[in-house]
Amino acid sequence: MSTIQTTAPALDLGHIRSQFPSLVQTVNGHSAAFLDGPGGTQVPQRVIDAISAYLSHDNANTGGAYATSRHTDAMIVRARAAMADFLHCGADEVVFGPNMTTLTFAISRAIGRELKPGDEILVTRLDHDANVSPWLAMAEDRGVTVRFAEINDEDCTLDMADLASKISPRTKLVAVGYASNAVGTINPVKDIVRLAHDAGALAYIDAVHYAPHGLIDVAALDCDFLVCSTYKFFGPHMGVLCGKREHLQRIRPYKVRPNTNAIPNCWEWGTLNHECIAGVEACVEYIADLGRGTRTPFEGRHTEVTNRRAAIEAAHAAIHEHERALLERTIDGLRAIPGLKIYGITDPARFDERCGTLAVRVTGHTPLELATKLGERGIFTWDGNYYALNLTEYLDVEKSGGFLRIGLVHYNTTEEVDRLLTALHDIVTP
Fold first, then answer.
1. Domain ranges of the chain
2. N or C: which end of the chain has fewer CB within 10 A?
């Protein structure tokens, strides 16, 4: 049990930012403002230390009859338990891999063993291509049909009526993102899972972009598979897949013969990146510590928690409030910039339907030009399609450079937002 106030406390940004060594960098005399979180967040010192400590003391393969190998085995067990708390699932339902894309390609092939011509898979126009191309490739090999759920042009949200209409008894899997990595839309995932299950289909959720912004609860979602990448939530470059135990036991992976039975190991290909798995445990602990009273992460109060999952819940409550304030300030300022268009939800009454990721275009300026000029001032943003290729093609911006993407996470400050707004205004109105 945990005691969490309904109004989340303000994050102690001084304490938080002091843990991230990269945040003190300068560019051309300007402090670096990392507004590039959707492409990968920065990491706290404890993650760096955990990776270094593993390589310094325990670097070994698993299953050996000696100390460092046993230490490696124990570390992986701890990291699975940490991710199980982060996702709210069983530790034996946690699969490690290089990244979400690799894991999805691998498991899509295994799921494809059970599909036949005439079966259908439903994907969406809003998704990162890592939750589209693996299904297209497998479907081509298996003679399976892939259908696309469309979006509402005016706010870049999923057209739920269209999605529901395309789920039928032929649908075997629905693949959808928890949140759009391009425009920040948070999808009604629980409703989509229910629609898939009502038709007897599996639900495959890409939570890569949602993970740093919102609490994930796979038990409540009841999804069959959920994937994320830890480098998007303050950890190392690793991917994690959570699969329902019954599916991981039933579906047959493509594996080398000595490791084909026990879950979750049978879903992990080759020797894992042990040092980064050590970093995964550290990044989950970093998030949990944001919600623990023992390190006083909040200004003027403590949150009583009795386990790591409760601490993660408390941390996300505070993260949500902080990012919401940054989002409101950013959108208010962007609206005042001449010629600037924001793609996605802009109504403050609907901000619970989006996270702090903003895609914009400015008349007369390419996204690359804007990102380059901002980068020269120490403000890091992204330009392009970010692999949300179906969306940029659908919105007819792909051939002209895609979007300028601004990404807010919990270590960002109002001062950084104000710097961005001032710099953008100066660039487009010289």
1. 8-43+316-428, 48-284
2. C
